[in-house]
Write a structure and sequence with these properties.
single chain, 440 residues, alpha/beta, Rossmann fold, Glutamyl-tRNA Synthetase, domain 3, Glutamyl-tRNA Synthetase, domain 2, 4 domains, three-stranded parallel sheet, 42% helix
Amino acid sequence: MTTTRFAPSPTGWLHIGNLRAALFNYAIARQTGGTFVLRIDDTDPERSKDEYVEGIKEDLTWLGLTWDKLEFQSKRLDRYMAAKERLIEMGRLYECFETPVELDLKRKKQLNMGKPPVYDRAALSLTQAQKDAYRAEGRKGHWRFKLDQERIEWTDGILGDISIDAASVSDPVLIRGDGQVLYTIASVVDDTEMGITDVVRGSDHVTNTATQIQIIQALGGDVPRFAHHSLLTGPQGEGLSKRLGTLSLRDLRKDGIAPMAVLSHMARLGASDPIELRATVQEVVDGFDLAKFGAAPTKFDVEDLRPLTARYLATLPVSDVADAVSGAGVPDALAAQFWDVVKDNIDTLDDLPGWWSLFSDGAAGLVDDDDRAFVDEALALLPAPPYSGETWGTWTNAVKEATGRKGKQLFMPLRKAVTGRQRGPEMADVMALMQVKPKG
């Protein structure tokens, strides 16, 4: 059975880049009736926060991405220590004592000599006496996995055939000097023991995948199918790293972006198929095809989510937005009529209070100086409410008769005077909802 996972670190809020991995893995699992695991990578006790864990769950729930199992890596430290001991016994994990400064000097020396900055495995030649001396100095050893220096190959679900020479890669650190278990080993142990069959993640993990394949094989596990999606850039091709604070899912939610707009966009962004608005999560899943995605960096513009949100909202019945309509102050008796009038003229549900304020309190009229006398004369011909669907036609006919204006010169100044806007719903529908006489 297909089993996928999404393994975010609770060290910050989920952002739009995180969502690609979550959505892709979710879609693969749901297409095959498989299992989707939410695995919280909380092995860093100092940076991991409970509020971020709750935020991850809230964001995924908002999007409709439900998980079948919830795991916490902090509760599996014994499994990682067991794997550590097995690898030590195999001679595949060795203790190192270089400081960050010493490692940096080694890298600079190698680069100056025109060599790749690969760890030189100096720790393998340390005697027990040398190790004891380092410990006596107060140094704490970190642990590296000894790679077999051969080519590591796999067929990537997006990138195609990949081949990496392990001799060009430093032996990865699996456990830090302070004892913290790092992603590379924790992910391997979990993927192996949880039966993960497919892993989709960003292309920045390609080298990680190569080293993890050897660790999986050393521990006797089955290597999952890997796929690495492209990384997102800004609309001009710039990196998103400095903008992620404005691209968190919780901020998109606060800005009124519809979850189906987000899912519809992200399920096709970077693929050869065009982006299509979907009505349900299942439709997103059904239309997802990993093979259609390419390797090139993918441009993302948050503004593209706004028209999709508007289009999605326009498809909804009033029952789906009842809370938002009520929250805008609309009486229940007028809710359906109100929604039918404004739903094609909003970007987000946050626009609803403004529309209801127009109907209930009147708007500050938008009147050009050249039209002031005309508008004043026209408003004098408009009776007090209540109004109906026929009010607009009756009123504009009377104004036309009195002033001689017609066409755009008649209708546009009156629309602007009544609504304070140059465009919007049919004015007959607007007048039918007006609770007060327009201010002009």
